[in-house]
Amino acid sequence: xxxxxxxxxxxxxxxxxxxxxxxxxxxxxxxxxxxxxxxxxxxxxxxxxxxxxxxxxxxxxxxxxxxxxxxxxxxxxxxxxxxxxxxxxxxxxxxxxxxxxxxxxxxxxxxxxxxxxxxxxxxxxxxxxxxxxxxxxxxxxxxxxxxxxxxxxxxxxxx
Length: 159
Fold this sequence. Notes:
Helices cover about 25% and strands about 15% of the residues. The protein has about 160 residues and is α+β, with helices and mostly antiparallel strands. It is globular, with a radius of gyration of 17 Å.
């Protein structure tokens, strides 16, 4: 969990700089590589799932996502126009990626919300029994066709 939070907090270039500055990186490693760092599990294949975001005004934003992406990744990677969504970039320091799932989809989630996530959800508008933070929902093949509702208002707990 610590490493995951570090990867979410620092960009790849910042990590490379810190490692180089502190002489942690051996000279034979190409730390200047342009390879990006991911905040979610590595997708070992190109399996895709369909995800639909239902906005408060009734608009439906349908998109395709890779298995292993978070719902926040789906919004960012597909450039979905959901105002303010994911303001903290997945560091679990706001509740702007708050989504509401159908009860049957909520029960299928492999993990319960962490204490950190529950603390942020307590600050969200329109909280329900099936609320989660989109940055914490990692998509699997079983979630193909997932439909989530985006609440009317967002609350950025950072300020």
